[in-house]
Design goal:
Blueprint: H1 2-18, H2 31-35, E1 49-50, H3 58-75, E2 78-83, H4 92-103, E3 113-119, E4 124-129, H5 139-155, H6 159-173, H7 177-184, H8 192-220, H9 229-249, H10 253-268, E5 282-283, H11 286-289, H12 295-303, E6 306-312, E7 319-325, E8 331-332, E9 339-350, E10 358-366, E11 372-379, E12 411-416
Parallel strand pairs: 1-2, 2-3
Antiparallel strand pairs: 3-4, 4-12, 5-6, 6-7, 8-9, 9-10, 10-11
The structure holds zinc ion (2 copies).
């Protein structure tokens, strides 16, 4: 008999419990989702109450919604009410924090969100506050509100009434004029976390750049076995180019760059052996080298587009010329072949207007042979910079169709009843 009774009880409780799903943070229907048309149509039209198990009656839900809508309009505080029969064995207090953050209740910047979670299977009710809300509504305040205003009604099974009384109590805590002004005006933007974030990025990027450049310098700033001086210098110069780029961002690289520049000069003057006889070659000075340079090379040295190093073997009289680019303003002349061609004039032939493009003419003159090249180019139409269109900065006001992105670090209080 006893056994039968137990089984009946078990069966009864199973059917009873079986009516309601066990919710997880992800499966609690968001009343804001309903506004987007994704939640179940039995859900009441609103934005604040999640009542999927129908634990609160229709009138109660509508009234709570109206109260919470007013609360958000008048104080900017977004409060959600969630009534779910079961969340399994998960403690309601931690479930509330997880749900709070999953939905992102309250303004993302001010974090003035609130969540009232009621879990009848645990006979537990919890108020969770957003991190910005703790200042106005302490954990003790939340406990007091539950004890004084909500629990007495819950004990009489008047759940909607208990929740409404709790909401009114919350409102009374925010009823101070100074508090209202503070809640409704945007807080000063907390720029520090972003600033720290950028600094971390900067330091990380610079450390990587520094390590890479130091490593490359160690590997690369030298003349390799069998490598010619000009090829080694070219390699070092490209590395110096990177150093110059990063020096702007990270001034300490100036010293590495200076060291590399010194090495570059040393590599250029590093003696090597004659290809013919193996005797060490000698670098000729500016006056000695001219007899070994042709007219084009001499012209290039004269304008400074190139520096040609002449190496001479004292034993077999062989010569080796290495050329180094200096002034990059010069181009190669189509007539004489020397890199001695430079822009000498740039005139506007037709001005560009807002309606038509213009034309200009560039003249390049060769310093060696006097050859002139003319280049006509198009000047683009003048585009009027459009005035910045005022972006309507909308403050998240009442009746918003989404949660604000707020965060809670677990403030609030819970009570069993
Ligand atoms: Zn030789
Ligand atoms: Zn020329």
């Amino acid at each position: 008999m006893r056994k039968i009774f137990t089984s009946i009880c078990l069966l009864l409780s199973l059917t009873l419990f079986g009516q309601f799903p066990v919710y997880t943070v992800e499966t609690v229907p968001s009343p804001k989702d309903f506004a987007k048309g994704t939640a179940s149509p039995t859900e009441v039209r609103n934005g604040y109450v999640s009542n999927p198990d129908g634990l609160l009656n229709q009138q109660g839900v509508e009234f709570i919604n109206a109260q919470l809508d007013t609360l958000e309009i008048t104080t900017g505080v977004q409060m959600a009410v969630v009534a779910v029969y079961s969340i399994g064995d998960v403690p309601a207090s931690s479930f509330a924090v997880d749900l709070f953050n999953y939905w992102g209740i309250g303004d993302a910047e001010k974090n003035t969100g609130l969540l009232l979670l009621w879990v009848p299977s645990q006979r537990y009710v919890q108020i969770t506050t957003g991190t910005g809300m703790e200042k106005y509504l302490t954990d003790a305040d939340c406990g007091y509100i539950l004890d004084e205003f909500l629990i007495p009604h819950f004990k009489d099974s008047c759940y909607s009434a208990g929740i409404i009384k709790a909401i009114w109590a919350v409102e009374s805590y925010l009823d101070d004029p100074e508090t209202r002004v503070e809640l409704l005006t945007s807080f000063e933007k907390k720029t520090e976390p972003e600033w720290v974030w950028w600094l971390c990025w900067y330091i990380t990027a610079m450390m990587i750049a520094l390590i890479w450049l130091c490593y490359r310098s160690f590997v690369s700033v030298k003349r390799n076995e069998g490598e010619s001086n000009d090829k080694a210098v070219e390699r070092v110069q490209s590395l110096i180019g990177w150093m110059t780029f990063f020096t702007v961002l990270f001034p300490a690289l100036y010293f590495l760059r200076k060291w590399a520049k010194g090495k570059e000069t040393a590599i250029r003057k590093m003696p090597f052996n004659c290809e013919n006889c193996g005797h060490e070659m000698q670098l000729l000075n500016e006056s000695e080298e001219d007899q070994y340079l042709n007219a084009i090379q001499q012209a290039e040295e004269k304008v400074g587009s190139y520096d040609h190093d002449v190496w001479h073997c004292p034993q077999c009289q062989a010569t080796k010329i290495y050329s180094y680019r200096l002034n990059t303003d010069y181009d190669r002349c189509a007539a004489c072949g020397a890199v001695t061609m430079k822009l000498t004039s740039d005139t506007v032939l037709e001005r560009a207007t807002r309606y038509s493009s213009g034309r200009g003419c560039k003249l390049y003159t060769c310093a060696n042979c006097g050859h002139i090249t003319k280049s006509i180019y198009i000047i683009p139409k003048i585009v009027e910079s459009s005035g910045s269109s005022g972006s309507g900065g909308s403050r998240s006001g009442g009746g918003s169709s989404s949660w604000g992105g707020g965060h809670s670090s677990g403030g609030g209080a819970g009570r069993s009843y």
